[in-house]
UniProtKB/TrEMBL annotation:
This is Ribosomal RNA large subunit methyltransferase E. Its EC number is 2.1.1.166. It comes from Dethiosulfatarculus sandiegensis. It catalyses: uridine(2552) in 23S rRNA + S-adenosyl-L-methionine = 2'-O-methyluridine(2552) in 23S rRNA + S-adenosyl-L-homocysteine + H(+). HAMAP family: RNA_methyltr_E. GO terms for cellular component: cytoplasm. Keywords: Cytoplasm, Methyltransferase, rRNA processing, S-adenosyl-L-methionine, Transferase. SUPFAM superfamilies: S-adenosyl-L-methionine-dependent methyltransferases (SSF53335).
Length: 194
């Protein structure tokens, strides 16, 4: 992805009223794997500034629900079918979500640590976040539910991919074209929790 393509995504997001160009990574995954449907209950970890929530809330509609989590507050207004928990995701327990719904259809995580430039430290933190998303998914998802989590590729990613493939009927790693080409981020998809 060249700088000018990234700028294009930035301007497209502004024009379409999205809080961030991250939206186009989720949109691409959704177009390809059809992860979002009307009426779904969804968790969105690392949801600030709020573009994934904007997209998901529209896709799941008034009978659906999106519960977002971030350390930072949301930067854009959200629809009535959303809830927001401001906290560090490592403090979260499955019970923190049960007041919103007994179980969920999809767990999303676009959470990313603030990068330090020390590659292995950044990867370790990102893998820990993706593992947290995986653990919450196993506790909160209905059978057949799905997981999409960002992770920085490196030591520990392969083990996580193996775990996703064991827990779900289908496990995949996806690099959206809206990701910067030199970025080490990928998205792990688990579909159909066993
Ligand atoms: C790439 S941004 C997410 C963008 C979002 N998907 C959107 O479309 O607007 C990553 C987010 O992860 C959040 N984050 C990082 N560490 C976190 C933590 N320990 N707990 C909760 N959120 C965290 C950051 O605050 C940041 O907002």
């Amino acid at each position: 992805m060249t700088r000018s393509n990234l700028d294009n995504y930035y301007h497209k997001a502004k024009k379409e009223g999205y809080a961030a160009r991250s939206i186009y990574k989720l949109e691409e995954i959704d177009r390809r794997y059809h992860i979002l449907k009307s009426g779904m209950k969804v968790v969105d970890l690392g949801c600030h500034p709020g573009s994934w929530m904007q997209y998901v809330s529209r896709k799941v509609g008034p009978k659906g629900l999106v519960v977002g989590v971030d350390i930072q507050p949301l930067a854009v207004a959200q629809s009535a079918n959303t809830r927001f928990i401001q906290t560090d995701l490592f403090n979260l327990k499955a019970d923190d979500f049960r007041k919103y719904a007994e179980s969920f259809d999809l767990i999303l995580s676009d959470a990313a640590p603030r990068t330090t430039g020390v590659h292995h430290a950044d990867v370790d933190k990102s893998v820990a976040m993706a593992e947290k998303a995986f653990d919450l998914a196993r506790e909160l998802l209905k059978p057949g539910g799905g997981l999409v989590t960002k992770v920085f590729f490196g030591a520990g990613t392969d083990d996580l991919i193996k775990k996703v493939k064991i827990a779900f009927k289908l496990g995949k790693a996806h690099k959206p074209s809206a990701s910067k080409s030199k970025s080490k981020e990928i998205y792990l998809l688990g579909m159909g929790l066993k």
